[in-house]
Design a protein that fits this description.
Oligomer: single chain
Number of helices: 4
CATH architecture: Up-down Bundle
Low-confidence stretches: none
CATH topology: Monooxygenase
Largest sheet: none
Number of domains: 1
Number of strands: 0
Shape: elongated
Radius of gyration: 14 Å
Strand content: under 5%
Order of helices and strands: HHHH
CATH class: Mainly Alpha
Distance between the termini: 45 Å
Length: 84
């Protein structure tokens, strides 16, 4: 593993874990009033595209980070749609 891979994994961990508090809060409270539906929809699609890019380019840090982030973002988006 190179230092570039380590930087990639650290960056992936930091940005991915940042979604956990919002996902937990949204699941617990079902309050999505402060979340923009259009922004989260676009963000979720963007995350899906980054996941596809990571897979196609064989970039493990990009693929893993975006797979996990896609799960968190999708949960929040579903709650936003379900609990308007």
């Amino acid at each position: 593993m190179t230092y570039i891979d380590i930087i990639g994994f650290l960056a992936a961990f930091g940005t991915t874990i940042s979604f956990l508090p919002q996902a937990i809060k949204t699941i617990q409270t079902k309050d999505t009033s402060g979340i923009s539906l259009s922004m989260y929809s676009l963000f979720t699609v963007g995350t899906l595209l980054w996941l596809i890019y990571g897979i196609l380019s064989l970039s493990i840090p990009v693929a893993i980070a975006n797979a996990i982030t896609l799960i968190f973002a999708s949960i929040i988006l579903v709650y936003k749609i379900k609990y308007k």
